[in-house]
Design a protein that fits this description.
This protein is of the alpha+beta class and about 120 residues long. The chain has one domain. Helix content is about 25%, strand content about 25%. The strands form two sheets. The chain has a four-stranded mixed β-sheet with strand order 1-2-4-3, with helices on both faces. Strands 5-6 form a two-stranded antiparallel sheet. A hairpin with a 5-residue loop joins strand 1 and strand 2. The protein starts with 8 loop residues before the first strand and ends with a helix.
Length: about 120
């Protein structure tokens, strides 16, 4: 199937992170992938305040551009936004009592793992 007829793939990973209290805090990571047959995957981590599609849809437009030309499969995601409650003395942001910085890195890692697990469907190899 030509890349221009393939629709983007939207999914959400449902995960948990351990809060400093030891309790588990659930969170979701929405993902959009733009499949190709290129054999290449590029995982994009938008800025902390930016949505996965980007301001003025810039990441969406890039994903569609790469897809139309069969250059690479773009995978982009959103980590949950911080809750803006200073709960940890050593960090300005947190998420339900967990380190938001750790959450951001874990979200990226889970997105990369998901991309690799689904590589055949996403990029053909």
């Amino acid at each position: 199937m030509p890349p221009d007829t393939v629709k983007p793939v939207d999914t959400t990973l449902f995960l948990e992170i351990e809060a400093e209290s030891g309790e588990m805090a659930p969170y979701g990571v929405p993902i959009t992938a733009y499949p190709t047959g290129s054999g290449t995957i590029v995982v994009n981590s938008p800025g902390s305040g930016e949505l996965k599609d980007g301001r003025e849809n810039r990441w969406r437009n890039m994903g569609l551009h790469l897809q139309e030309r069969d250059l690479a499969t773009l995978v982009t995601f959103n980590a949950p936004r911080p809750d803006f409650q200073v709960q940890l003395e050593w960090e300005p942001y947190s998420y339900r009592g967990a380190s938001w910085n750790k959450l951001l890195i874990e979200s990226l890692c889970h997105t990369i793992d998901w991309s690799l697990e689904n590589a055949v469907q996403l990029c053909g190899t």
